[in-house]
């Protein structure tokens, strides 16, 4: 009977591979613990690592609480504070404890009043480091599983969660890499298009800030001549330098992309009109070029020049070529 419980748990974990996000995985794991282990209370604590933040672990946060811990913001807040000092709460791990025997006074005080009979902490690992913990508790005695099987079930669940979280992160890293331009580190077209809607929604939620949402284009003048005269390594350095220059003008949350060749796209919020913003970028790039190259620019404002990516891109492209023609004519008459 008990061996069958483990088989059923492992069969259940096959569903975990379909989880797209960590929270989905943790909710599935919580369901399994309730169903197979008669574990009526618990939650997960985890230090997320964001791709956008260079994988720096974030402060511990509680996820997918159930039973006595569900919908209790005060408990979750207190638990997260305890995990700031120790991801294993300074208690023996990988086994059950009677609630009255919890050795950490702060933890014992936090869980007091929840009617817990027993309590346990199982570490969650990522790349051989403790990144969080599975907290399990019972308010009623288990009737279908022995103490030994109860330990084995939580052991298996914690190990599978650790493995699955690493798999989700690996998939996210691969997806992230597929949306980056390898030469410059800017987003490629796929990466830009997948993030446009998010930035538009963010802008709509902050209309009171009176900021402009700008789609800008930057094109390197006579880039083929740079490659032909100085070689492709120099051309590559030019492209990287342009991205670095643009990034000094774009606020956090803005997008910088390379659409291919020598064309770059910017999608960001700005306190100034698109024309002034793109002129600033043109000047910053020019000031860093040491006379080797220059760029033409164009822009459009979302909601004014269009309400779709395609419409704003077309308008910005039209203005870019108008800027390029005007600068060529000015050079002829100089």
TrEMBL record:
Domain GGDEF: 211-334
GO cellular component assignments: plasma membrane
One matching Pfam family: GGDEF
GO molecular function annotations of the record: diguanylate cyclase activity
Biological process according to GO: cell adhesion involved in single-species biofilm formation; negative regulation of bacterial-type flagellum-dependent cell motility
PANTHER family for the chain: DIGUANYLATE CYCLASE DGCM-RELATED (PTHR45138:SF9), REGULATORY COMPONENTS OF SENSORY TRANSDUCTION SYSTEM (PTHR45138)
Name of the protein in question: Diguanylate cyclase (GGDEF) domain-containing protein
